[in-house]
Amino acid sequence: MSWPSPPAFEAIPPGLRVGAVSYLNAKPLYYRLTEWAPELELTIDVPSRLASGLRDGTLDVALVPSIEAIRGAASEGLTILPQLAIAARKEVRSVKLFARTPWKAVQRLALDEGSRTSQALCRIWLAEVQGVCPETIETHPLGVPIEESLADAVLLIGDRAMTVNPEPFVAVVDLAHAWNVWTGLPFVFAVWAVRPGVDLGGLPHLLIHCRDQSLAQADLLAQRFGVPLGLDRAEALDYLTQVLSYDLGPTELRALRLFARKAAALGLAPEGVDLVFHQPPRGLPLETRR
């Protein structure tokens, strides 16, 4: 199956350091990126470590949890690429909170170390919807099965959240769906964040091309990356094309700003953060194309 070559765009600076995650939900945002731009350096890691890479200067642009973009906008002057995100309009399937007790009885909470946005969303939902602030909050390490945690509730993200058997638990909630029921808005899990002063060249154009072409041929990604996770092709295709959204348009921006305010109210992010957007690619508006 042939993929259209990207249109002509400004050259990408050699050695530009780009960070992305390996999860299925992120694949459409960078699939074939290094084939079209071999001059850049692509690092694959978990979201929280990518955020650390932006802070310590080992990455120039990275797909990071939205909470880290919010925090980084205040502390490091990070900007955000328009039009591109990982969001869910309703359920997301890959961010779930598993409880061994009723929600009101949760006193010990274990949070997957892989994504700080999901950690914040979990705490916001428990506090504001369930009226619960657990006495003990701990990290659930990557690679450790949920069965080994002794916490009352455990947050899991990514591909492993989609394969856990829910039957042993008293309650399971998809946190994107819970956010949508509560606010009526989608939830933005991740955005492309850029360190100040970095010249991206034509990278924003190319990332949009990656997204558009990946979604146009999502069946290929579903087969290549979803099936090895234990998903059937149809389920993976539905996940990539119906469950997830890869736009950062006006509705997603409202959701992101609401999340920033709620995170600040719990002390999880600075107050009054001004989300600044990187200069859009030439000829493309900030608003998502519909």
TrEMBL record:
<comment type="pathway">
    <text>Quinol/quinone metabolism; menaquinone biosynthesis.</text>
</comment>
<dbReference type="Pfam" id="PF02621">
    <property type="entry name" value="VitK2_biosynth"/>
</dbReference>
<dbReference type="GO" id="GO:0016836">
    <property type="term" value="F:hydro-lyase activity"/>
</dbReference>
<dbReference type="InterPro" id="IPR030868">
    <property type="entry name" value="MqnA"/>
</dbReference>
<dbReference type="GO" id="GO:0009234">
    <property type="term" value="P:menaquinone biosynthetic process"/>
</dbReference>
<comment type="similarity">
    <text>Belongs to the MqnA/MqnD family. MqnA subfamily.</text>
</comment>
<protein>
    <recommendedName>
        <fullName>Chorismate dehydratase</fullName>
        <ecNumber>4.2.1.151</ecNumber>
    </recommendedName>
</protein>
<dbReference type="InterPro" id="IPR003773">
    <property type="entry name" value="Menaquinone_biosynth"/>
</dbReference>
<keyword id="KW-0456">Lyase</keyword>
<comment type="function">
    <text>Catalyzes the dehydration of chorismate into 3-[(1-carboxyvinyl)oxy]benzoate, a step in the biosynthesis of menaquinone (MK, vitamin K2).</text>
</comment>
<keyword id="KW-0474">Menaquinone biosynthesis</keyword>
